[in-house]
Amino acid sequence: MKKMKPNVIIILVIFAFVSFALIGNDALNQNTIAGQSDEVTLRLGQSKAGSHPVSIGIDRFAELVEEKSNGKITVDTFHDSVLGSDREVIESAQRGSLELASSSTPNMTSFTNYFTAWDLPYIFEDKDEVYKAVDGKPGEIIRKEMEKSGFKVIFFPDYGFRQVVNNVRPVNLPKDMAGLKIRTTNSRIEQADFREFGASPTPVAWSEVFTALQQGTVEGEGNSYSLLWDSKHQEVLNYATEVNYNYSSDIVVMNKDKFDKLPIEYQDIIMEAGVEATEWQRALANEREEEAKQQFIDYGIEVYEPTPEEMKIWKQTVEPVWDQFVREGAADPEYVDIILETLGKTRKDIFK
């Protein structure tokens, strides 16, 4: 038997070494992927009180994810602004330093003007219209649009209609709001609403509103009964007027890169959990809103429900806000038309 030449032996050794290295590296990669697939922990941050229906719905979503994945996926939820304000957690999710985040939709207008249309006064007049739009073509357009900013939309928790509340005097009609300092979000449309109502809109961060009402920096605000009660604002309010001038949804998003890197099976589980959590949370939100309204009444807050004729006045008072904001660069006219078509109504129907 002939002896191998030294240079041939060296070549074979190098070949064997490279082969083992490649095999080993591939095995290592497979183990890493398998390790990721076996157990994944995701964090979800948002600002509302843990007792709010949005927060409870998010907790239900986390439970469903864990159940459907047999414990392989854990979603740790953080409420009460523990990880930051709406804006802060959303930006963290966009960067990828946080996997999931939830925010009220008015705070999302910097990512897409489509949310500006949702803010238009009375574009949604009841919950059936809200759900029809969110679950239909208008919602699908936003889901696709948000991906351009690096987000995967998981689901839209039901926040509720905003009512006008204050601690100065009863408000039956817009004229009764003359000069009242009303806290608003940073939404330019909401601020315009209150200017048309005759009030003085004052943007204040949500975490500072209670103190602002205590100290007289503002004298009222617009928000849902449930959020107001869960945040103990009844302690610094005296009057509520049920005008439903604006609907605000929340939105739960995940960093899209992180979502896309999950196994398809895990992606499906998360999205299925979002669908089921939506239905469950909507029922809870509607039940809780009625309960919170009664709690307001029992607490001694004077709640006024305008007559149908008075509601026409409330609506017609803010119709000029549509003239101001339904334009390119604000509430996209084409998207507004899609919402109205989905709901089977026209602008004239709203303000007649």
Automatic annotation (TrEMBL):
What name is this protein filed under?
A: Tripartite ATP-independent transporter DctP family solute receptor
Q: Which family does it belong to?
A: Belongs to the bacterial solute-binding protein 7 family.
GO BP, sorted A to Z: transmembrane transport
Q: Which PANTHER family match?
A: C4-DICARBOXYLATE-BINDING PROTEIN DCTB (PTHR33376:SF7), PTHR33376
Superkingdom field: Bacteria
**What would be one Pfam family of this protein?**
DctP
Q: Which UniProt keywords apply?
A: Receptor, Signal, Transport
Gene Ontology CC annotation, any one: outer membrane-bounded periplasmic space
Q: Which CDD domains match?
A: PBP2_TRAP_Siap_TeaA_like
Decide whether keyword Signal is in the record.
yes
Q: Which organism is it from?
A: Oceanobacillus polygoni
